[in-house]
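Job type: complex structure
Entries:
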Amino acid sequence: MSDNQEFRPINLAQCEPFRWQGVDEFIYKAEDGTASFKDVSRRKLFIESAESGIELRYFEIGPGGHTTLEKHDHMHLVIPIRGRGSCLVENRLFELSINDMIHVPSWSWHQFRAAEDEFLGFLCLVKVDRDRPTLPSESDLERLKQDPQIAEFIRHR
Amino acid sequence: MSDNQEFRPINLAQCEPFRWQGVDEFIYKAEDGTASFKDVSRRKLFIESAESGIELRYFEIGPGGHTTLEKHDHMHLVIPIRGRGSCLVENRLFELSINDMIHVPSWSWHQFRAAEDEFLGFLCLVKVDRDRPTLPSESDLERLKQDPQIAEFIRHR
């Protein structure tokens, strides 16, 4: 399946836990030269062709891994379905368990981390038509790190 | 929470499995005089205020229960997160396990059933702005029941 093609199966059954028939693994994102993420894979479960349509992805972070610290105009709706982890949204930290729901509002800094000894797998819903993420500047990082718990949480570079 | 109010928590943690803090149980739908459904509850996990916005619900069907057989213009994206069951979509029957994904396309007849000895709980994603369901006429039912497996599956009246 190419990166932008419509994909709307009626029934997407699992062939093994957290793996679906006919659904390929993608790299999380192209290397951005900053090593801003660690051990993340991405799968596309549903893509509508319309720009206002929705897209459902499954992300999986290996034990000790993390997604990029970033923000953007489009929002995320995130539901962990595997393992355990934590996340930063805006200026708050949350523990994540299966079937919790996390809403990442527009332009909120966010980063997801798996537990050190556990995968974190989550569904992530977005609109098909969405903007590219913005990475934090040095001054953004400084501001975020004024909170010692957030400074401790963040993985960047 | 009223039936149409915006509801966008950043973190919706569970207070017990499949129950979220501050999320009320609703009746599945008003009695329609036909007993078209059995033992179904409904919870609203996320509602955007915009008409083009998305709404995420959690439905739970008790053992042996079922939703209404219906169709409508808006589509559903369904992900079982509790138990086991089965469904009709269009003219096909599917077994449902946790983390499968079911897409109910526009104007497809559909009905969900829990296993006889198990709950079936599922996330269901819709647009905020959506049409009311259409119930099957006698001739719709006759047509659907031409397939003996579907005739066996359907619960109506």
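Summary: The domain at 30-153 of chain A is CATH 2.60.120.10 (Jelly Rolls). Chain A touches chain B at residues 8-14, 17-18, 20, 45-46, 52, 54, 56, 77, 79, 81, 89-90, 92, 94-95, 97, 99-105, 123, 125 (CB under 8 Å).
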